[in-house]
């Protein structure tokens, strides 16, 4: 279970990094992705196990491909 939460934290950190690099608030990112701001916050904090569909929505909202969003993330 510890490995899983570590991966969620890394995904959240990467999402926050890309969002802030683009000068977006969580509200703007959530609106562009068609998601709730609280959901985006929970993902960024590593408290939400995000679905692949929502990962794709967030990548599109950030104007990056999924590989860029997940770059450097491993389950190890």
Primary descriptors:
0% strand; 76 residues; 5 helices; 67% helix; mainly alpha; 434 Repressor (Amino-terminal Domain)
Can you describe this structure in just a few lines?
With 76 residues, this protein is mainly α. Helix content is 67%, strand content 0%. The mean pLDDT is 92.
List the helices and strands and how they pair.
Elements: H1 2-21, H2 26-33, H3 37-44, H4 52-61, H5 66-70
Helix pairs in contact: 2-3, 2-4
Q: Could you explain how this protein is built, in words?
A:
- The protein has a single domain (2-70), classed as lambda repressor-like DNA-binding domains (434 Repressor (Amino-terminal Domain), Orthogonal Bundle).
- 67% of the residues lie in helices and 0% in strands.
- The protein is built from 5 helices and no strands.
- It has helices at residues 2-21, 26-33, 37-44, 52-61, 66-70.
- Helix 2 crosses helix 3 (37-44).
- The mean pLDDT is 92.
């Amino acid at each position: 279970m510890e490995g899983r939460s570590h991966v969620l934290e890394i995904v959240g950190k990467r999402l926050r990094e890309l969002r802030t690099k683009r000068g977006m608030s969580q509200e703007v990112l959530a609106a562009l992705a068609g998601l709730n701001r609280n959901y985006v916050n929970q993902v960024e904090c590593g408290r939400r196990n995000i679905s692949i569909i929502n990962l794709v929505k967030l990548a599109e909202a950030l104007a990056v491909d999924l590989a860029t969003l997940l770059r450097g993330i491993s389950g190890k």
